[in-house]
Amino acid sequence: MASYTLDIDRVISIPAETVYRAFTDRLDEWFGATGSLVITPEVGGLYNFETEMDGQRHPHYGRFLELVPGKRVSMTWLTGNPGTLGAETVVTVDLTEQQDGTQVRISQSGFYDEASRDGHEEAWPLVLEHLEKTLGKG
């Protein structure tokens, strides 16, 4: 079976440590539905949260593969439809501190098909924009 990948790069105006924490212990503050997050932010630790869209909840879950504070988060990422269609993808978030914020590079691999990959390629920039707006306030 073919495997599809994506890479997204964006500079956001918040510190790398804030972005790191956003993916390791603050997912419900900016991404997931309030109160839905269950997380153990350590290598091998599991996470589970739901997003809410158009009155429906969509579960996201996986486990942490690599954690380098302020630098990198790598985790498995599994959702239904819409989403990864049950494929256990791998999301790696690389962070590079810059004078004007943080360069965020998201790589996601393991999609079953182009449509699922393309949907995430469209979604991740919006997700990062929302992260910046939500957590960049203070």
Describe the structure.
The chain has helices at 16-24, 27-30, 114-135, and strands at residues 4-12, 38-39, 46-53, 56-68, 72-77, 89-98, 101-111. It is of the alpha+beta class and 138 residues long. It has one domain: START domain (Alpha-D-Glucose-1,6-Bisphosphate, Chain A, domain 4). The protein has a seven-stranded antiparallel β-sheet with strand order 1-7-6-5-4-3-2, with helices on one face. A hairpin with a 3-residue loop joins strand 4 and strand 5. The longest helix has 22 residues, at 114-135. It is globular, with a radius of gyration of 14 Å. The termini are far apart. The mean pLDDT is 94.
List the helices and strands and how they pair.
Elements: E1 4-12, H1 16-24, H2 27-30, E2 38-39, E3 46-53, E4 56-68, E5 72-77, E6 89-98, E7 101-111, H3 114-135
Antiparallel strand pairs: 1-7, 2-3, 3-4, 4-5, 5-6, 6-7
Q: What is the mean pLDDT?
A: 94
Helix content estimate: 25-40%
Number of helices: 3
Assess the beta-strand content as a share of residues: 35-45%
Biggest sheet details = 7 strands, antiparallel
Give, in spatial order, the strands making up the sheet with the most strands. 1-7-6-5-4-3-2
Main features:
alpha+beta; 3 helices; Alpha-D-Glucose-1,6-Bisphosphate, Chain A, domain 4; 7-stranded antiparallel β-sheet; about 140 residues
What's a quick, concise take on this entry?
With 138 residues, the protein is an alpha+beta fold. The chain has helices at 16-24, 27-30, 114-135; strands at residues 4-12, 38-39, 46-53, 56-68, 72-77, 89-98, 101-111. It is 25% helix and 43% strand.
